Amino acid sequence: MWGKLLGTCFGFMFGRWLGAALGFWLGHLFDKSLKQDFDKAGGFQGFFDKGELDQRQALFFSSCFAVMGHIAKSNGRVSEIHIRAATAFMDDMGLHGEERKEAQNAFRSGKSGEFSLKESIRDVKEVFGRRYDLLQLFLEIQIQMAFSDGYLAEQEKQLLQQVSKLLGLSSRHFQFLLNRYQAEFQFRKQRSQQQGQQSSYHSEQQSNYRHRAEPPSLNRDNALAVLGLSKSANEKDIKRAYRKLMSQHHPDKLVSQGLPPHMMEVAKQKSQDIQSAYEFLKAK
After folding, report:
1. Other C-beta atoms within 10 Å of 229: how many?
2. Which residue in 118, 185, 104, 96 sits closest to 146, CA to CA?
3. Amino acid 18: pLDDT
4. Listed residue (250, 265, 256, 253) closest to 95, CA to CA
5. In contact, 263 and 93? CB cutoff 8 Å
6. Conformational region of residue 43, where left means phi above 0, alpha means psi within -120 to 50, and beta covers everything else
7. What is the pTM of this model?
8. Listed residue (105, 13, 22, 23) closest to 68, CA to CA
9. Are the C-beta atoms of residues 144 and 184 closer than 8 Å to each other?
């Protein structure tokens, strides 16, 4: 569209109507070629070459695991829980062979006393400075690691605040992400428990028709908190927040900005949690 429009305008400027016709035709060829290249490159990935995309993804990958290791060591030593959390994270990403070794090495480098958090985050900010959604996901992953033992220590919180500030995110938005992750964690746990108890409930119903107990209910307030909303949120607020969060965590868009394909599972999980909370609220 833009090729035809601009081609027609420039053609008219230099050749009147004949130039406009020629410009329209050339613009059409440009639009057609651009769309083919765009589709072949996987959408927005076409805006920079494959080499640049690989470099972005490699930086995000190594920096993410290094900062995770640094946060895990914030209490003086890395606990078994943090190690299991990092291992589970690698499993979820399907990392094997050399890729898994790279993640483990990056995690270990973050635990080293020579590791510079400021330098690492500075590099991330320099490369992804205009990719706000990707910077936010980077911080969300670190929050997830800090909460892996179910508790956020003061040292961990201070480091997360530092990471947030270095990434250029406000303290208010940091608190918003922190609260939203806690709600997301609780909602996911609550949903899992309900699914398990519902299965048990139906089994008991089949064996005992006089059993009257009801399976537990999910919490509406917690579902609202997953979307970053307060108890007073109305239907319009819910829909607006849902669309915004789904856009921010869209896996394909994040990969096109530099998210390593293996980390797409993280974005997918967050999208599923957002979707589940929204569907729960819609049914109410």
Report:
1. 21
2. 185
3. 56
4. 265
5. yes
6. left
7. 0.71
8. 105
9. no
2-27 pLDDT, tens digit each: 444 555 555 545 555 555 555 554 55
The answer to whether residues 133 and 270 touch, using CB atoms and an 8 Å cutoff, is no
For residues 176 and 166, what is the distance between their CA atoms, to the nearest angstrom? 17
Number of structural domains found in the chain: 2
User: What pLDDT score does 76 carry?
Assistant: 77
Same domain, 139 and 241: no
Single-letter amino acid, residue 92: D
Query: What is the residue range of 112's domain?
Result: 54-179
Q: Which amino acid is at 12?
A: F
Can you tell me whether residue 119 is helix, strand or coil?
helix
| pLDDT > 90 fraction of the chain, expressed in percent and rounded | 36
Neighbours of 196 (CB within 10 A): 11
Pair (173, 61) in one structural domain: yes
Q: 160 to each of 64, 117, 131, 149, 264, how far by Cα in Å?
A: 13, 11, 19, 15, 22
Residues of the chain with pLDDT under 50: 2-4, 12, 25, 34-49, 200-202, 205-207, 209-216
pLDDT of residue 9: 52
Residue 195, burial from CB neighbour count under 10 angstroms (0-12, 13-18, 19+): exposed
Structure tokens at 220: 């509406």
Q: Pick from 46, 92, 23: which is nearest to 252 by CA? A: 46
Listed in sequence order, the DSSP H helices in the chain are: 2-40, 50-72, 80-92, 97-111, 117-128, 132-146, 154-166, 171-207, 220-226, 235-248, 251-257, 264-283
Task: List the CATH number of the domain containing 157.
Answer: 1.10.3680
Instruction: Provide the CATH number for the domain around residue 237.
Output: 1.10.287.110
